[in-house]
Structures are given as structure tokens and as C-alpha cells.
């Protein structure tokens, strides 16, 4: 089958097309014929950070497609069923999904929309619901709100009844988010948003902040949090991995800081996130309250162009690759 791999090429994530044998479903696995797959900035960062000379790794982390085979011990799924989920090596004609993480595709979603769901919205569930405890009427602030995770957080927060502020260095990108009811649009790439958020929240601050940008925004996030506020660290697009912490603010405002990553989690912990997403957010996607926002769809053979488009930082929402 045709597949793509990533490797570190002098600090760049090099994407290569190759021929590979189709995988076979092992115990607890489901083999899926890929119809569409999502492109995520995180795996570009991982590829750039790999050891020079290391063997290429299968590219792609999420897919939507049809079940073609079940591994030993897997039941409850029929051949041809429409499913989506995390899938290592998703940029290929066939990919494997852990049976515990298989998610049914709602009937109203296209393959492309389904491929835009798994990674973004499971991360969003983790940081907004499982750890963030975002409640109706509270304020969420998202730094880098036009990213895939940022847009997903905006949509899920509105479905939960929260108010949302978001930052972006592009005013044009913020304007594209107006139909999603962004309550406070902040056109900035700097940590200078506290005063605007305080004014919008009657001096209370944001109850939950999702920082997708990184360390350059961290001090301002701490200053902007409300009493008993929560701060989710989900990305570091700015490359800044160190920052000072205002311990007095952390102490006096009883703040909670947490990370959002699956890197060190067990398979059971990851599958628990899937179950939480299916219970809490998938119904809103199924009935249209949350509509996955896709910026552009590329054909499978144009995956290198999709990667270049992502690296240009022009997108608002998700970039998806369609199998033809």
C-alpha cells in the first residue's frame, strides 16, 4: 500500500512517500480502510525533535474510515462500519486503531469532517471537561484560538454554555471565527491581554485558560486568571519552554495548573479519555451543535503540499487529507 513517513532532516520534518505492506489487525486492534486523515502540528514537532539518522516513522495520527478486519478478542463491530479514532500511521491506505479507542462516526459527518474530530476534541475534552471543569457562564480564554485545538475549544465551550475570549496575531483569522460566537477577539501575539479580559469579566478574570502558544504567554495567563482559575498547557508553538511562576498569585488565587498530553499515559488512561469524549461531546457533534471547522482538504497525493500549508500558519481550524 502507499504510505507516508516522517524523519528528521537537519531539524526539518521531512515527509516521504513509500510503499509498505498493509498492516494486520493484532489482538485488540481494528483494521480500517482510511478514507480521510487529519494533519496535526504536534507530529511535525515530534519529527523535528527526533534523533538525526533515526529510522523514519509512519506519519499521521488520526483517521476516519471503514472497518475491514477485527483482531483477536474484538467484538461488537461489523465489517464496513464507519469509525474514527487515533491511528498511528494514518497517512496510508490502511491503518490500525486500538479497539478501545474506536469511535462511531455520526451519520451527518462526511469522512473529512470525521477525520477532523478525534485528536482535537479528545484533547479539548481533557482540558475543558475532565481537568478544566468548565461550567456554563464561566469565561474561557484561548491563546492561539485560530489553531485546530483553539477552534475546537471555542466550539466545545460554547456548547457547554461558557463565554470565550481568544487571541490571535491575525485580525483576519479572528474575523473568520465571528460566526462561532467568539465573545472577545484579541488581535495580539504578545502577553498584553489581561486588561481587556478583566474589563470583559467585570474585573474577575478568566476561569479557565487554554495556552496553546507557550512560555511567552505564561506570565500573562497567570495574571489573567480569576480566583480558583485553571490553566491548561497544551502547546508551545513559540518554542519557549521555560517561564517564571508568580508564586504569590498561585498561592493567593488558589490556582490550578495542568498539562494536557498523552505521551506518558497508559493505554487504559487514553481509552478513558475516549469514553469521556463519547459521553460528553460526541452528542453535540452528532446533532450539529458542534460543527468541525475544516480550513482546507487536500488529496492524499498532495500531502506534502498540506504540510507546507500548515507550516505557513495560514489555516483557521483543521487541515484534512482525503483518500481518492
Give the SSE layout.
Layout: E1 2-9, E2 12-19, E3 29-39, H1 41-49, E4 57-58, E5 62-70, E6 82-86, E7 94-98, E8 103-104, H2 111-115, H3 118-130, E9 139-143, H4 148-159, E10 163-168, H5 171-176, E11 184-187, H6 194-200, E12 206-211, H7 218-224, E13 225-233, H8 247-252, E14 256-259, H9 267-280, H10 282-286, E15 294-299, H11 303-311, E16 318-322
Parallel strand pairs: 9-10, 9-12, 10-11, 12-13, 13-14, 15-16
Antiparallel strand pairs: 1-2, 1-4, 3-5, 3-7, 3-16, 5-6, 6-8
What does this entry show, briefly?
With 324 residues, this protein is an alpha/beta fold. It contains 11 helices and 16 strands.
Report on the structure:
- By secondary structure, the protein is α/β, with parallel strands linked by helices.
- 29% of the residues lie in helices and 29% in strands.
- The strands form 3 sheets. Strands 3, 5, 6, 7, 8, 15 and 16 form a 7-stranded mixed beta sheet that branches. It has a 6-stranded parallel beta sheet with strand order 11-10-9-12-13-14, with helices on both faces.
- Helix 3 packs across helix 4 (148-159) and helix 6 (194-200) packs parallel to helix 7.
- The mean pLDDT is 95.
- It is globular, with a radius of gyration of 20 Å.
- Strand 9, helix 4 (148-159) and strand 10 form a beta-alpha-beta unit.
- The protein has 2 domains: 2-117 and 293-322, Quinone Oxidoreductase, Chain A, domain 1, CATH 3.90.180; 121-259, Quinone Oxidoreductase, Chain A, domain 1.
- The relative contact order is 0.14.
